[in-house]
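go over this record:
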Amino acid sequence: MSVSASQRYRRRVADGLIQDDPAQREVLAVLDDIADALRRETRAGLFGLRLRPPKAVKGLYLWGRVGRGKTLLTELFLEGLPDVPHQRWHFHRFMNHVHRELAGMPDTADTLAVLAKRIAGQCRLLVLDEFFVSDIGDAMILYRLLDRLLQAGVGFVTTSNVPPDELYLNGLQRQSFLPCIDLIKRACTVAELLSGNDYRLRALQHAATYLTPASDATEAVLAGQFRSLSSQAPAAAEIEINGRDIPARALGAGVAWFDFAALCEGPRSAADYIEIARDFHTVLLSGVPRFDAASEDPARRFVHLVDELYDRHVNLLLSAAADPLSLYRGNRLQREFERTVSRLIEMQSTEYLTLPHRP
């Protein structure tokens, strides 16, 4: 018998790993019902009992302020679905994937229907983290994409910082996007996670976000922070950004841990940093060096990285060779680095850490 997300949650509470939260338990009850429906549909398919094409289960649109535990609840839900084909994406990466797939397809009467059937052949459930629509290209195809996926039998579980009615707010041609909002509300239970606790902020406040000097001890602290923020142990991974693989010390839902060299000493561009800032609400960075005249190029990339993380309200936890004021001893970037120093200091503040991510 499968262990429900609610049961997994109670076990973690009993083990002292998380704090019991009635608001989270209410959402877990909805996720348990979705999991049961998915298992029934999956069993019907396995035993040849399905007399009709698969019907998409009613999903969940879970929204709430930053740090309320949306990611944790989603992970507990997915842990109980090992036999249910599903895919999990950050919303922005999913839409990039969709646009790439469409660009490579021959023109047909309904390319989105063809793509939806392709996705349906791989999964019954699509989990989209940080659902946030800001791009008109995404907005104009999203209704038809979601509609075709539902027709193909794919259900949705999504997390967001805003309610459906505020999606693509003030966007160009928003009137054309309103049917998509209606579709989301029909296809999903809309639930606000009303927890009064900001668990992410609590985790960040309990540990320094700027560690110096970089050492084995500070790396151990970063490893602990990754575990706390992602609920998983660090494991080496790779992420594809703009067609190139970038090695990471660890990747979790919304959390990434990189070495400085991987992000700032290779052929990286501001476009890479924009993608990272959109995909992750928290970035850990190990081994930021002291910059001098011989390291102006890595210093410039670091300036660009901090700019993009700051603009999108990404939490930055790092280990560095020196404090912000002592990091740069070069010649060409003195003015630019003054801004970086100011931002590194501000990014340690409670005011910054409570800002919602802007993917």
